[in-house]
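CORE FACILITY INTAKE
Project code: CF-77B
Contact: R.S. (postdoc)
Sample description: multi-component assembly, three entities in total
Requested service: structural model of the whole complex
Turnaround: standard
Below are the sequence entries exactly as provided by the requester. Do not edit them.
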Amino acid sequence: MTGELRVPLFDLALTLNCGQVFHWLPEAGGWRGHIGDASIFIEQRDGRLRWAGADDSTIRHYFALDHPLEEIYATFPSDPVMDAALAQCRGLRIIRQPAWECLATFITSSLKQVPHIAQISHTLRRSFGKTHAYPAVERIAALDEAALRACKLGYRAKSLRLTAQAIARGEIDLGAIREMDDTAARAELCRLPGVGEKIANCVLLFAYERLRAFPIDVWIGRVLRESYFPRARKLTAARLTKFSSRYFGPYGGYAQQYLFHAARTARRLRVES
DNA sequence: CTCCAGGTTCCGG
DNA sequence: CCGGAACATGGA
């Protein structure tokens, strides 16, 4: 299955490199990765998307080509930091990831740098996945902690295993979460071991299409403190959560991802110079 | 060697 | 409710 599509406002490289998904690898001027269990090659040239390994609707859905980006941008607050992030990230889309894969990947993300998260994802796929797809929840649930620690998960191994077991036993239903409102869905995800407010928000945003979810990690925390509360003495996490949910609006998750990527690339430029 | 990374959990004021 | 500390691992 191959296909081709003209997409006006989409930056494939930015979308795959911005830290929302971790397993796509450069190949022959494009990228190779999995959408669910299917191995996909995809490239973008001259505004055209060409791919092999999936049908049209799979590509449109996964890469969220139906998201109305201009409408979304129109809801962003206008301030120097947000304006700069938007100018830098136009065409970045929040994709629709499979829930288990997204949840598991972000459980392994805590206190890890982006390249390390990718490394863990690839090791798990190579070790336990069918044809390098992300390992099924039952597969992870059946592993012992040592097998996961061998994949360099460190203390996260226990959380990933317990979470997989809770889902495999049906104690938590990832499908049912899709039907819940944002607050209930977040609370349900937070019942899982190794899942707190931040990771729950990542899963809501990247897997459940809750485009208002606003994950606050060390990068975004820094951006908020330095750019939006430059001389606040004490800022509690609750205060930052409240501010960001109100200020960044109905597509706060999009705004967050643009701010995140802008902050990370800014540091990269500083380090190189 | 020290510092830090897309945090969570547990514990003491 | 809030601040601290522990927790694995690897790159800068």
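Facility notes:
- Chain A has a mean pLDDT of 97.
- The radius of gyration of chain A is 19 Å.
Invoice: internal transfer
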